[in-house]
Write a structure and sequence with these properties.
The structure holds two protein chains of two kinds. Chain A is an alpha/beta fold. Chain A has one domain. In chain A, strands 1-3-4-5-6-7 form a six-stranded mixed β-sheet. In chain A, strands 2-8 form a two-stranded parallel ribbon. In chain A, strand 6, helix 5 and strand 7 form a beta-alpha-beta unit. Chain B is α/β, with parallel strands linked by helices. Chain B has one domain: Rossmann fold, CATH 3.40.50. Chain B is 38% helix and 19% strand. Chain B contains twelve helices and 16 strands. In chain B, the strands form four sheets. In chain B, strands 6-13-14-3-15-16 form a six-stranded mixed β-sheet, with helices on both faces. In chain B, strands 2-1-4-5 form a four-stranded antiparallel β-sheet, covered by helices on one side. In chain B, strands 9-10-11-12 form a four-stranded antiparallel β-sheet, with no helix packed on it. The longest helix of chain B has 23 residues. Chain B is globular, with a radius of gyration of 22 Å. Classes of the chains: A alpha/beta, B alpha/beta. At the A-B interface, strand 6, helix 5 and strand 7 of A face helix 8 and helix 12 of B.
Amino acid sequence: MTFKEAVMQTPNLETAWQPGLQALRAEDKPHIKAENTRRLCGSADVDTALLPKEPQANRWDFAIGYQHKNRKDEFIYWVETHTGSDDQIKVVLKKLAWLKTWMRRDGQHLASFERDIIWVSSGHTLFTKGSAQVKTLAQKGLIYSGAVLRIPSERRP
Amino acid sequence: MTTLNIRNVGQITNASLTFGDLTVLVGPQATGKSIALQFLKLMVDAGQVQGELSRYGLDWSGQLPDFLDVYLGEGMRAVWRPGQSSIEWAGKIVDLPQMAARKRKAKGESLFFIPAQRVLALRDGWPRPFTDYTPGDPFAVREYSEKLRVLVEQEFGAAGDLFPQARRLKREFRDLLQKNVFSNFHLKVDKVRSQKRLVLGPGGGTENLPYMVWSAGQREFVPLLLGFYWLMPPTKVSTRAEIEWVVLEELEMGLHPRAISVVVLLVLELVARGYRVCLSTHSPQVLDALWALKHLRENRARPEDFLNLFEAPNTQPMQRLATSAMEKTIKVYYFNRETGATTDISALDPSAEGQAEAGWGGLSEFSGRANEAVARAVANSGREGRS
């Protein structure tokens, strides 16, 4: 199954798939830099698509599909662009919890893909790579990438 | 601010350094940090360097390659490539071959250099004289060793405690070092038959530990402590008047993070006393401290916040140190192995687009990879179809 097919077969995301990074809000696009944009398999704005169904939920932002040069299967980057500050950690962890629950419940097709779950800072950040906060996030399965997510053409095995 | 530009010297293709009150160089091994610092010494102290080399009978026949071999160490002549290499100091091109050809008038020293190999300065617990080394050993090591010998023989000749000493370092520093480096041992001058030696032992006790059974960190730290003693004399004047610059290579050598904190604080004490200090480091903790310092300054933090960072006591002398340290300019440069060039990463911005700055010159690179490895394992655990 491709990323595009998985999105289209997911409840409430049937029309959310867009080519390249077109599903992203304009303000989010500068935070994503793909080494080879032709390897992008599309994107989906999860937050907007699920707004009518779960207006009160801490919904995750979006998913980006990518075909790495050295991988057989497509890969999903689950990305949340959010202010990178201490007082937002709880909010983003709530979003992460929502994403995990939603993947188990409705997003099973998408959950079968190998993934990175990433918090991209939408503004200035004070988190350093070695900080306890970033390590705490890692233990929950969340990569804090700083201001930019760089998607490499090849991934380490 | 003073600038040093180095082109095509050793591993360096283009290093452009503007010095602050505190300047820190980071980068992988063998990227030219030490060469840059030794050339800084040469720019500041050419006359003193040549005078010392001559005094100990070293002759380079006016030839730059031979001079570089005696100054930087055997085989280091290769770092200078005629026609390609150049150095610019304080906005002026320096004619290095001419500098080597014409002996400058010997004058006082303005830059005190504490080399990374400082552990070599002690043998069997006593500083080695300049002449104890081979002609191929770097000048910086031999010179530092000789200074420690003179200091210990002239100022600590009699048996007794070198550390702690009432008139050496602030009481707060003595307490921090006692706790974090010496574990309540005292550093003393002892005699075996007629031979003096430095030992560690309980205050007032006689069960002393000779040099070879000290911890690796203590062996590394004692030569550094003596350097701090030399720079902070027990007089009303808090500095050596003739010294403007201090270079300290790899302050973290052999030390636990708690001890590193104390040494960083001692470095800031040097800066507060008016020395211009240049460091090289492989310790992310040093950059953590500078990053914190920058933000404390920007947010007009209280001296107490600074002191909490270093777990230092909140006393008036330490408050004065904190206030002064937070006013100083700090520059940080990354030496890039791939390009041979330097990058100014003084902003230490974790959200910077450039990896050199966001990853603090590679010092937080492993930490970042560790985070990613753990996050990926957690995010993909239990995934359907996971092989």
